[in-house]
Fold this sequence. Notes:
The complex is a heterodimer.
Chain A: H1 3-17, E1 44-48, E2 52-53, H2 55-70, E3 75-77, H3 96-100, E4 106-114, E5 120-128, E6 133-142, H4 147-163, E7 172-179, E8 186-193, E9 200-201, E10 209-214, E11 220-225, E12 232-237, E13 243-245, E14 252-258, E15 264-271, E16 274-281, E17 287-289, E18 297-302, E19 308-313, E20 320-325, E21 328-333, E22 340-347, E23 354-360, E24 363-369, E25 377-380, E26 385-390, E27 396-401, E28 410-415, E29 421-424, E30 429-435
Parallel strand pairs in A: 1-3, 1-4, 2-4
Antiparallel strand pairs in A: 4-5, 5-6, 7-8, 7-30, 8-9, 10-11, 11-12, 12-13, 14-15, 15-16, 16-17, 18-19, 19-20, 20-21, 22-23, 23-24, 24-25, 26-27, 27-28, 28-29
Helix pairs in contact in A: 2-4
Chain B: H1 5-20, H2 52-59, E1 62-64, H3 74-89, E2 95-100, H4 107-127, E3 135-141, H5 152-158, E4 160-165
Parallel strand pairs in B: 2-3
Antiparallel strand pairs in B: 1-4, 2-4
Amino acid sequence: MTFSLSRRNATALIAGAAAAPWIAPARAQERYLDIRPGGQFRPVTIAVTNFVGEAQQGAATTSVITNNFKRSVFLQPLEQKSFVETISNPDQAPQMDSWKMINAQFVVTGRSGRNPDGRLRTDFRLWDVATGQQVAGQQYVTDPANSRRVAHIISDAIFARVTGEKGHFDTRVVFVDESGPKEKRRKRLAIMDQDGANIRYLTRGDDLVVTPRFSPSSQDVTFMSFGAGDPKVYVLNIENGQREVVGNFPGMTFSPRFSPDGQRIIMSLSQGSATNLFTMDLRSRSTMRLTNTAAIDTSPSYSPDGSQIVFESDRGGGQQIYTMGASGGGGKRISFGEGARYSTPVWSPKGDYIAFTRQKGGSFGIGVMKPDGSGERILTEGYHNEGPTWAPNGLYLMFFRDPGGQSGSKIFMCDIFGRGEFPVATPAFGSDPSWGPLLG
Amino acid sequence: MSVFNSVRLVKFAAVLCVAFGMAACSKSPDENGANGANLAGQGAGAATPGSAQDFVVNVGDRVFFETDSTELTPTAQATLDKQARWLNQYSRYSFTVEGHADERGTREYNFALGARRSEVTKEYLVARGISSSRMKTISYGKERPVSVCNDISCWSQNRRAVTVLSGGTS
């Protein structure tokens, strides 16, 4: 099974089949959960029952959905062994009293089977235990090879209905797979589903590669690669494997990131002792200088509307975070933590926060702050956390943590309120995660 | 240009074993684990004047930096003065100055920091009369430590600029 092309086709296929909603939502789309910091937070409890029909496929779908919710912080899937009622007809309302007994606020029922043409048909219904009403439901028909994607799409539909926020489960992550001794680390670009499944390697490990970043709008990844001559920024199409160098800059280019429309790449160029920010338009190939300092300006990231850029600079001494207009000019410092240096800022896809790495007293924390620098919140602290990347819904971050020595980096995810943190399984050491857009 | 200059130097050492007999080559790599410094174990007398290992062993191919600093210490300047004299004498060599950082920084900043370290090293050598046309610079940031552990002695080995000879080895 090649995922490169089939997955893209599958997107259209699944969406097409889902176009005919077979149950109208019983109520208006009100929220069930306030997603915000502080307060008396309690996750919404949800019972994901076994999808009936084709037993093995049904159990696999149930398992993918349940595992997604286990790492969601906002939804708490209940243990199947606590269930009182066994669902045999997923189209019928469950006996709500039996779900109230185990304090389930929602119940998911579903069915998994094959159409006569061999295609996989999956449907689900979401039930509100308090009212006894069905509040969401959908059917999906697709190639059986896409069964995990269907489970992720269902997870997103349920997450969105319960929280009022967009989902993040039908997504992929590019990262750097690391092997071999640290002195001669072999690094390969790799891509996986957000839950660690379907891993695929995008480079062979001949050249040192770092900092892959997903395009928000295409199947492209931009990254830095060492090869012959100066290390350079490249763009790689993850579907057809085509790669090209970005621009013809006289020096090392690194720290690339796409603009929100995917048309430009912003990056650092080192010339002499200075490192400044540049952009290149991928269609016209025209380049533009954004900063002109003797300092180190790096790790640029656009605001989601493309009007602003956040970046780090040591122009005032140590590394701090600055914002400026998208065409460059003077920067405004926004990070001011006492005795701390701030780096790797990334603007949330929702625009409300900037994630960063904070170094203080030998410790490396991952945190978020508002774009004006207020509301700083450290989500994890220790040695050595680095490099946050946003889930497309702006509710979660992935980052990597290297304990030092001959050990190596592993990837973790957490929610932006610091309520939960989970390891993201990778086959070997992993670093530099970049969370891609919803496949949708 | 090889990313793994230690690999190349090891190969070079193997060639020398043929030239000088096996006695010097049986010694284990130097304890400090520095890139290419495994040749140091052979003792100063083993290197042919003007050879790459003469440069590594008798001159010193690297200088070290303080944490997050790109300033050349008096020790570093003394080493670069020796490098400049040697490079002036053996002008057939071209070379690359590699800038490196330790792991206690973020990846992208460390690329820029390594670039600065290689640049200040290059500028110092130019000021000592070495033509800039003989040099290239490259930064590896924190990607290629020579010493891996969790303490200050390791980190200080990794904050370095290494002068790697490339041309003129005939």
